[in-house]
Every structure is written in C-alpha cells, then in structure tokens.
Amino acid sequence: MEKTIAVKWIRSVIGRTDDQKKTIRGLGFKRLHQTLTLPDRPEIRGMINRVIHLLEVNPSTPRPEGQGSLRVDPEGRFLTPPLQKPGLAPPNGSRNDLRGNADEI
Question: Using one digit for the tens of pLDDT, what is the confidence trace for 23-39?
C-alpha cells in the first residue's frame, strides 16, 4: 500500500504569485477548504513545501526520520531547519559587541 498525505487548502491564493497558484492547482485543489489525500512521493512533497503557508498537512502514514523525510509538528506543519549561510552568524556575544562602544570614539 502506498503511503499517503492528507492535505487541506486553508488560505486563499489571492495576491500570491502565479507559481503558487499553479502549484495549488497542480496538487489537484479546486476550491478553498478542500481536503485531498495525495501519494507520499518526493515530487508531491516538493510541491507542498512550495505552498506550505497555504496548506494544512496531516501525514496519513508517517515516514521514518532520515534522508528524504520531512519532519511534521503536531499541528501538521512541516518543520524545516533554519536557513543560515556560513559566516553570517555573529560571533559569540551580542550585536553590540560588533558595533563598538560610542565612548571609544
């Protein structure tokens, strides 16, 4: 039996980009507040991730942690690691340490 994901469209696409509108239609949604049961495949998960802010996701059969799996919180939203480029994080300490002290000038 193929693993499935239950997905509900909860936010309108008014004011969203054409790519997001096409992704919602590509997933098979016709109207707001519609719930679909979709196969749990990488291409479907990729589409869901592109419009996750418009959807509510409940995995019908959870996938094990590991490569290719996405973590889902109890409310059905995907958990993603924070985006951080190397070298952009401030060193240990506060931002004030980077700016210096006005009394030193």
Answer: 999 999 999 999 999 99
Contact indicator for 50, 43 with CB cutoff of 8 Å: no
Q: 81, exposed or middle or buried, with CB in 10 Å at 0-12, 13-18, 19+? A: exposed
Instruction: Enter the pTM of the model.
Output: 0.57
Identity (one letter) of the amino acid at 102?
Answer: A
Can you name the CATH fold of 4-73? Answer: Ribosomal Protein L30; Chain: A, (3.30.1390)
The answer to whether residues 48 and 55 touch, using CB atoms and an 8 Å cutoff, is: yes
Q: CA 45, CA 29: separation in Å to the nearest integer?
A: 15
Q: Enumerate residues 6+ apart whose C-beta is below 8 A from 97.
A: 90, 91
